[in-house]
Amino acid sequence: MLKNIRVKIYKLLRWSEAHTKTDMVYLAKGGFWLTLGQIISSASTFLLAIAFANLLPKETYGSYKYILSIASILAIPTLSGMNTAITQAVSRGYEGSLIPALKTKIRWGLFGALASLMLAGYYYFNNNTTLTISFLIISVFLPFMDSFSVYGSLLVGKKQFKISTKYQIISQITAITILIITLCFTQNLFFVLLAYFIPWTFLRFIFLKITLKKFRPNSQQDPQTIPYGKHLSLIGILGAVATHIDKILLFHYLGVAELAIYAFAIAPIEQIKGLFKNLPALALPKLARRSFHEIDSILYKRLFLLFFIGSCMALMYIFFAPYFFKIFFPKYLDSIFFSQIFGISIMLTAPIALLNAIGNSKLIYTPKKMLYEVTIIPQIILIASLLTLVPIFGIIGVIISKILFLFFILILDLIYWKKIIRFNSQKNIYNKI
Question: What is the pTM of this model?
Answer without folding.
Answer: 0.80
